[in-house]
Amino acid sequence: MHFKELILDLVKEKNINMFVDMDGVIASYDFGRPLEFDKKRPLITNIKTLEEISKIPGVKLHILSICKKDFQIKEKNDWLDKYAPFFEKENRFVLSKETITDTSSPEMKCNFLKDFVCEEQIVLVDDDNQVLKAVGRGLENIIVFQDSELID
């Protein structure tokens, strides 16, 4: 398992806070149904990989996801309870564009990660190239992985 080996190598140096996107990473992304998160298909292979990683000492998993409407925060948490309960409730950060207005998704994630204070290494797993580029350029101390790294 390639991704697990990458994380094992990183955690040798420093504990890790790993932030994982939901849409397109652990849940299917359906452009035709963006507001019906409760109907999203779980991406089982990625979920199983992350569940294994959650058991590595020194790794703390977080969700960092964006939604359009405030009501989707509950939908996403309910979905996680059903399909990926190993993401602890206190480590789930679902940001709403209804609350945080006039900010793009890449900016929202960059701002959140910039303000997240910790001693550990921060890792981001996302499927959005714009987010990965923004975080990679704006926050040099964060390691970014494309979601495709989860699949061997």
Nutshell version of this structure?
With 152 residues, the chain is an alpha/beta fold.
Give structural attributes.
5 helices; 152 residues; 5-stranded parallel sheet; 5 strands; alpha/beta
Q: How would you describe what is shown here?
A:
With 152 residues, the chain is α/β, with parallel strands linked by helices. Helix content is 38%, strand content 20%. It has five helices and five strands. The chain has a five-stranded parallel sheet with strand order 3-2-1-4-5, with helices on both faces. It starts with a helix and ends in a 6-residue tail after the last strand. The mean pLDDT is 92.
* Count of runs of 4 or more consecutive helical residues: 5
Which structural class best describes the helix and strand composition?
alpha/beta
Low-confidence blocks of residues: none
Strand content: 15-25%
Main beta-sheet annotation: 5 strands, parallel
- Provide the succession of SSEs: HEHEHEHEHE
- Rounded mean pLDDT is 92
Spatial order of strands in the largest sheet: 3-2-1-4-5
Q: Overall 3D geometry?
A: globular
Distance between the termini: 6 Å
- Radius of gyration (CA) equals 15 Å
Number of strands: 5
Helix fraction bin: 25-40%
